[in-house]
């Protein structure tokens, strides 16, 4: 399966650190998968305004293509001002609602307070439900205390939760292969 590890921000390093950790756990799964980490900061993003994909710049067209062609996703997002970043929402606005249907998704997020985990429940999950994704029930939320001042993951409990999330994500990937595509 082609797994897209999407870093939904253009600033900071913590969400990328989490994706790097998950990428290692995916490599340890019994089945081999093709993973790709996408950092939105590496793309010249355009504001999505409803035009056809071919009317956006090459970076946006490539990003849309990579999202739509993936078989599964791990989405990493910081929480800014009690919300997901506009860059991540912009990506969701760019892809076809059918593109992510019945595809597995796991979520990792990082915020400044413990209460910001509610953004996952109140904003990100409804978007993914609109796409009819198969969202794993065990997302991982982190905050500043889980990282060193250099942005390294230092919390063993978070590592264990990431491993467990990856295990469940693998089960969802197996389930998704049994679903008949829409005709």
TrEMBL record:
One of its GO terms (molecular function) is oxidoreductase activity. Pfam families: FMN_red. Residues 1-143 form the NADPH-dependent FMN reductase-like domain. Keywords: Flavoprotein, FMN, Oxidoreductase. This is NADH-dependent FMN reductase. It comes from Halobacillus mangrovi.
């Amino acid at each position: 399966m082609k797994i897209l590890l999407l870093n939904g921000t253009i600033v900071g390093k913590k969400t990328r650190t989490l994706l790097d950790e998950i990428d290692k756990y995916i490599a340890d799964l019994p089945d081999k998968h093709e993973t790709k980490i996408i950092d939105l900061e590496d793309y010249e993003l355009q504001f999505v305004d409803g035009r056809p994909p071919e009317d956006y710049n090459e970076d946006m067209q490539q990003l849309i293509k990579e999202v739509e062609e993936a078989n599964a996703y791990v989405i990493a997002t910081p929480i800014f001002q009690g919300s997901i970043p506009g860059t991540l929402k912009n990506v969701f606005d760019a892809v076809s609602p059918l593109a992510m249907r019945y595809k597995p998704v796991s979520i990792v997020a990082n915020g400044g307070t413990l209460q910001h985990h509610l953004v996952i429940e109140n904003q990100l999950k409804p978007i993914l439900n609109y796409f009819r994704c198969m969202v794993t029930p065990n997302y991982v939320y982190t905050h500043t205390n889980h990282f060193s001042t250099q942005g390294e993951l230092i919390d063993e409990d978070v590592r264990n939760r990431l491993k467990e999330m990856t295990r469940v994500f693998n089960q969802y990937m197996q389930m998704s292969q049994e679903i008949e595509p829409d005709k």
